[in-house]
Each structure stands twice: as structure tokens, then as C-alpha cells.
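Backbone geometry:

***
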Amino acid sequence: MPIFTADFKPTIPFKNGHFNTMYRPLFQKEKSLYTRKRIGTWDHDFIDLDFSKANSNTLAVLIHGLEGSSESKYMVSTANELNSKGIDTVAFNLRGCSGEDNLLLGTYHSGKTEDVHFVINHLLENYDYENLIIIGFSLGGNLTLKYMGEFADKLSPKIKGAIATSVPIDITSSEREMDKLKNKLYIEEFLKTIRLKVLEKSYKFPEFKLDKEKLFKASRFKHLEHLYTVPVFGFESPEDYWQKASSKPYLPKINKPTLLINAEDDSFLAKECFPYEEAGDSDTFFLEVTKYGGHVGFMTSFKQHENRWLEKRISRFIEENVQINIEQTIS
């Protein structure tokens, strides 16, 4: 029964989930050292990959959350931590999230694992890494878990494991949580950037008939899904999207060491997002639930040097549960 007991013990203010959620993006100090590589896709678009290297035989692929990027604080801090442990990283900017709009009408969504599959195959075919590990946060964590289960029988032996953090594995229940008053400020921040991106797409693709009045009145994810995600990606309804994009049904199929870290006080997650039963029935899917941590927070105090619990937990899982021999290579 691979269910871990968490050792996350924050100081008093960081025991508030909202405080912990907001502290990392506002105050964490991390500097990125990326080298960007743009790759062309099979459907005549592009994806930007940001590498941070330690001259290793092992590469961690980092996938950000909704409206994040390689510059999200949790992405940068994880890259820096893994580099310090001798692991190369590549931050996968989802389409439209690298600072430049992508070329197609479609960008990304919570279940779009074909892009993950494409990027992983590109890395396997064009680089000489012996080991690949996939690490996802929030929406990127859902993509990670779904990919590990959906493609379980097709994964290269070089893919050794995965870690996912703060993941709405059951999107239906998470959407209900996000609609509650406690998440109103978060929703509005997300919708600000998404509205503008969707509006820009409507100008670039006039055949995409967008109801602009409804766009700017949108106050829930469901409203934007109805206007954009459903018609662009071919879902029948927002509910159809939630069901098909959720990673929870794929957890029993995971066959390589994979860790999910979720916090009980994450205001984005409902009880359905804590898969104790799936972890208890698996030999390879691990679950760690912390009492505190918020959403992709997991900060412990105001002391910067102490605020690496999540990054160190990721590193420790790789060290203890993913069977690889990390070696430095000559650059």
C-alpha cells in the first residue's frame, strides 16, 4: 500500500491554505537559467522547451499548470533543485504559454496528452538521456498522471517514473469547488488571461465564431469551456470534457513509480481528488497527502532557504523510489 505519511510541518501563517497558495508566486525568489529550444509539431505548430542542464544522463520533464509557464516559481525552483542533484531539466511550455501565441486555434487543455507524448518522443529521439522522469504541477500534473496511465503499455523503458503535485484528478468535482466563493479571486485571475487569449484567437481565426459578450461575462471555467474548449477540441459539452480529461480513471493503469502529492487544505480540490483506494491497490502509484500546503504552495516559513520542502520531496522520491543511476556526463 504505497501511501506515504507526510513530514510537511509549516510555521503558523503557512498553515493557512490561501496564504500558502499565494506566497510562492508573490514572494519566492528564484532565478531561471534556461536555454530555449523551439520544436515544430506534426500539426504545423511549435512548442517551446526550456532546458536547464547539469550535464546529466537523466532528464526531468517539468509541466506547468493552468496559465503558467517555464517561469512559474514552482517550475524554476524545481529545476534549480534538481540541477543541484545532478539532474538536467526541461520545462515544457504548453502551447500559447511561452510568451508567444501559438500558430493554431487550439492551445492546450487538461487532458491533451498527445502533446506530452509528442514532446517525450522528441526528447527520446533527439537526445541521449538514459532516464526520463516526468513532473507535473496542477493541470500539468493531471497531464502527467493521465499520460502515465493512458500510455502505460507504450512507454519507453527510459521513462522511469513521475511526480505530480496539487492535481485536480477529478475535474468534475474540482470545477464544483472552483465555483465556490472561496475561490472567486483565483478564478478571476485565471479568467483575465484566458479571456484575452481567446479573444485574440477570434481575431486571428475569424471562422471561429466567438460570442464576445458572453466571453467577457464569463465568471466560471465552465463558461469559457463552453465558448472555447468544447467547440475547438471537439467535446460534446463541458461535462464531457471533464470526464474525458480527468486523470483519475487512468491511475490503476500506471505501471511505473509515480507519486501524487496533494494537500488537504488545497481549496481547488474536492474529496474525489484524494485517491486513497487507487494508491492502496497499486504497487506503483504512490499517494502523499499533507495537512497543509495549499495549491502548489508547500512553503514552510518566511526564510527563503527553508522553503524547498516540495522540491526536496520530489528529489527524494526520485532518489528512493525511481530505480536509476544518476551520472554526470562530459559536456
User: Anything to note?
Assistant: Residues 3-170+252-321 form a domain with the Rossmann fold fold (CATH 3.40.50.1820). The longest helix spans residues 184-204. The CA atoms of residues 163 and 314 lie 7 Å apart. The chain has two domains: 3-170+252-321, 171-245.
